[in-house]
Design a protein that fits this description.
CATH topology of one domain: Transferase(Phosphotransferase), domain 1
Radius of gyration: 26 Å
Strand order of the largest sheet: 1-2-3-4-6-5
Oligomer: single chain
Number of helices: 27
CATH class of one domain: Mainly Alpha
CATH architecture of one domain: Orthogonal Bundle
Number of strands: 13
Helix content: 55-70%
């Protein structure tokens, strides 16, 4: 092949070869410059799958414009063989140049900032790398890092694209490098932004120590470690690692995606704080005994234990997506664990949490869900004793399904007495306090959740949302724009900002925000309803009527809370129709009625006798809410 022409590019020297293709140093004869050309191997260049992957890589790279991401110059085809032309990065990979004991801390942070910046830019344009590792990070002659080889990358949008391959195994080929693959990928889930963050955590650990966090010497052994063992703390391998960096890497290596940082931008900001030697916020030390037990017992983990770990991790990954289909699939995962081993308390809590979310998003009636949550929590408590997770799940069912505000609050107090530093419990307690209009207490709980988990976005986004519902849409909007600056693809922030924009009188912009929320988070009945409400407020009557018809059509085949069409009628100014729908919701004890006193859609209804009677039935009369 040396000397061969691919269009205007003369191949000079083969630089490397990977699973899908080979990279050549080439001469661009038209522009007189040296470039890198990636072409398919002769054994794969006629395979449509490989051709599609090469083109997908080019499309992914071309969408990202960042100094730490390799630049795509062109895509071409010669004699039926596709190729991609990229900038030539003179230098070696981090894998080649990594010192035995890791980089000095200052250099490590400098390099890590570039890698995180590259991921942030990629994620902002909807691109997920899915194969981040030191071998795919070039260190250029000028000392700057360049993230390369997006051969496994995909566009995060277009979740139904059939060309997306499994991230685990396709026709015997392991997709990605096992040591850098997130637990959910090993459990069979597609890689996403959170999987990239896990790979970044492994990469940072290796850059700091010269070794991997998990070192199993066979594929089954390494998979067991990734799925079952807690990752070692960076400080256990690198004594001079700053505490803020230790915490960051630990959060990146969390088993559950929801426990990892909310976005690459948050990681980048945290690395910048590390470079400025900012001390971390005080936090009680977490005992390591549980992890040590896990490290001892993993050697005896059976194949059944590994399969159960995969199901639990996959279930949580699906649960965190919060769509109708993903919650159904999560429920199936947790149920399969129970079918295999009914003594797994984590699976019973998973079922309780999933049933709660099905009711919370309006996918299922709350009455049946609440009873099933109580039964699942009782089983978990029988197995593992009373835990903060169990009490939190029970509290949510108590207030959203039974409107028992005092009982739920008592459960949150018990949960926080057991686990005072549980950010998720502070978050959900804050949500309930917002629903009942106790705004200052709500803010305090959400701020505590943010302090305990500063790399998460949900508490910050909820704080912006509840400022809107407290009658302060301008500061709420400002907070939500800050969230979207940290992650422009964060679905809840677009949803919450839709409400903020409507409250600010910018109804057309609100409709656009809900459109973006639907694009990112799915076309749930809840989003259809809020978009229809905003369309009615914007005098886009046809849009609002279409939303009503869509909700009616869904309701003929599936559960749709009456609260949702009531919202659209309110947006259209159809007061009588809205009240009738709310009263039907009251008769059915729809879980969505929990929002009745706080939702900005009902501000003009608060003095209406029928509305106040409904509030009284729900125990919400007399609650203080925003103006």
């Amino acid at each position: 092949m040396t000397g061969a022409m691919l269009g205007q590019f003369r191949l000079l020297e083969r630089l490397g070869q990977g699973g899908m293709g080979e990279v050549w140093l080439a001469d661009d004869t038209a522009l007189g410059r040296r470039v890198a050309v990636k072409r398919l191997l002769a054994t794969t260049d006629q395979d449509p799958q490989w051709t599609a992957r090469l083109r997908r890589e080019a499309k992914a790279l071309a969408a990202v414009n960042h100094p730490n991401v390799v630049t795509v110059h062109a895509v071409g085809e010669a004699d039926g063989s596709p190729f991609v032309v990229m900038e030539l990065v003179a230098g070696g990979t981090l894998a080649d140049l990594l010192p035995a004991g890791g980089f000095p801390i200052d250099r490590l942070l400098e390099l890590a900032t570039g890698i995180a910046g590259a991921l942030d830019a990629a994620h902002a344009t909807g691109v997920v790398h899915r194969d981040l590792k030191p071998a795919n990070v070039m260190l250029a002659a000028d000392g700057r890092v360049k993230v390369v080889d997006f051969g496994l990358a995909r566009l995060a949008a277009g979740a139904d694209d059939p060309s997306r391959a499994s991230t685990a195994v396709t026709e015997g080929l392991l997709m990605g490098t096992l040591a850098y693959m997130a637990p959910e990928q090993l459990a069979g889930e597609h890689g996403d932004r959170k999987s990239d963050l896990y790979a970044l955590g492994v990469t940072l650990f290796e850059m700091a120590t010269g070794g991997l966090p998990f070192t199993g010497t066979t594929m089954p052994w390494l998979m067991r470690q990734i799925l079952l063992e807690p990752a070692p703390l960076l400080s256990e391998r690198r004594a001079d690692a700053p505490e803020r960096l230790v915490r960051l890497v630990a959060s990146l290596l969390a088993k559950e995606p929801s426990a990892r940082p909310g976005s690459a931008r948050l990681v980048l900001d945290e690395l910048e704080r590390c470079r400025r030697n900012e001390p971390p916020a005080p936090r009680p030390a977490s005992p390591r005994t549980t992890g040590q037990v896990a490290r001892r017992s993993v050697a005896f983990a059976s194949a059944a234990d590994v399969e159960i770990a995969k199901l639990l991790i996959r279930g949580r990954h699906l649960w965190n997506r919060r769509t109708y289909d993903s919650l159904g699939a999560a429920l199936a995962c947790f149920q399969e664990v129970i079918d295999r081993d009914p003594t797994r308390g984590a699976a019973w809590i998973g079922i309780a949490d999933t049933l709660n979310m099905l009711a919370n998003y309006g996918f299922a009636p709350s009455g049946d869900s609440a009873a099933r949550v109580r039964a699942a929590v009782a089983r978990a408590v029988d197995l593992d004793g009373e835990t903060g997770d169990a009490l939190r799940a029970l509290a949510l069912a108590r207030w959203q399904g039974e409107f028992d505000w005092e009982g739920a609050e008592a459960l949150y107090h018990r949960a926080l007495a057991l686990e005072p530093d549980n950010a998720l419990t502070h978050y959900w307690y804050g949500v309930m306090l917002a629903v009942v209009g106790r705004w200052s207490e709500c803010r305090a709980q959400l701020l505590e959740a943010e302090a305990l988990d500063p790399l998460s976005l949900i508490a910050l986004a909820a704080r912006g949302w509840f400022e809107v519902r407290a009658g302060e849409p301008a500061p709420g909007h400002a907070i939500l724009r800050r969230v979207l600056g940290l992650d422009p693809n964060y679905f809840p922030a677009w949803w919450f900002d839709g409400e903020a924009l409507a409250a600010l009188g910018r109804a057309d912009e609100a409709v656009a925000a809900f459109d973006r929320a639907i694009e990112l988070g799915g076309r749930s009945s809840r989003m259809v309803a809020y978009r229809g409400w905003a369309a009615g407020r914007a005098a886009r009557t046809a849009d609002a009527r279409a939303a009503l018809e869509e909700l009616r059509a869904r309701g003929r085949e599936d559960y749709v809370p009456d609260y949702f069409p009531a919202l659209v009628h309110a947006g259209l100014g159809e007061r009588e129709a809205a009240l009738e729908a709310l009263e039907r919701a009251g008769e059915r004890r729809d879980a969505m009625l929990r929002d009745l006193a706080a939702d900005t859609a009902w501000r003009e209804y608060r003095e209406e006798p029928r509305f106040r009677a409904l509030l009284d039935r729900l125990g919400l009369a007399g609650r203080t809410h925003g103006g």
